[in-house]
Write a structure and sequence with these properties.
The protein is mainly beta and 319 residues long. Helices cover 11% and strands 49% of the residues. The chain is built from five helices and 23 strands.
Length: 319
Amino acid sequence: DVNVVDRPKLVPGGNAIGVKINTKGVLVVAVTDVIGIDGERYNPAKDAGIKPGDSILKINDIEVKDAQHVVELLNQLQDQKIKLEIDRNNIKYEVEATPVKSLQDNCYRLGIWVRDKTAGIGTLTFYDKNSKVFGALGHGITDMDTGNLLTPNYGKIINAKISNIEQGKKGSPGEIKGMFYETNKELGEIKTNSNYGIFGVISDEFIKSDNKEPIPIGFKEEVKVGKAHILATIEGNKVERFDIEITDVQYQDKPEQKSMTIKITDKRLLEKTGGIVQGMSGSPIIQDGKLIGAVTHVFVNDPTKGYGVFIEWMLEQIK
């Protein structure tokens, strides 16, 4: 028996994008003591079993909107025992805690530092003109303090313009610095943040303005050691082609991030960036006219080299 598999066609990206995510509830990034008005030290969060990396979804059955909302709720409830709904590693449970009035500012506190949003620069990997699904980054967005994958309540991608590039050097990864502009005009809405990228729905306006044509994907079995190229933006908002070499391929049976090792060979890109820099994550990798994957990581000790992920692993994340 032979199973005939349709070969999807996708429009390769390379566009620099601004990424903004508002988390579901608030993410606890640190647990700390509170000095009460009596001068004693208290740690209500620690006593309740709350840990860094937990997300607080509800306080007394009220959905938490953001960090400021937590402050408002605690000061409304004051020193009465409260119920918190926590998410830890996608498992929800409830704990109880009693806020303490802080000597520092007379506000009621639990002894936690929280974060409710994040933003950065990345690269669009692909979009589908028919389903309007997009994929970007090639890896997930994690919190810089806890390392946890962020769960988006609402997220969007917007226009970004490259303003400066910090070159990558051995031991110090470089960075593309950009500006978000036309922030009221979304390029797309983020629905999923996974280990293999962010995914969502691209806007009709962006599809109309982008003049690239779809190309077939390359299945993982077709990826081979040898020449290829990436699409990336390193000046303004102009997508350009840069030569690379695939030096190693891991023929994985199940999704893993480090599917292939790549080396930047393009002289202009090496002069401009020193190799792969932060912000280039998601740059589509094209070999023999097929979209085979995306750039994901740089080697810290050799910025000319990095990893790419198979496009198949990214497509598996789309629900």
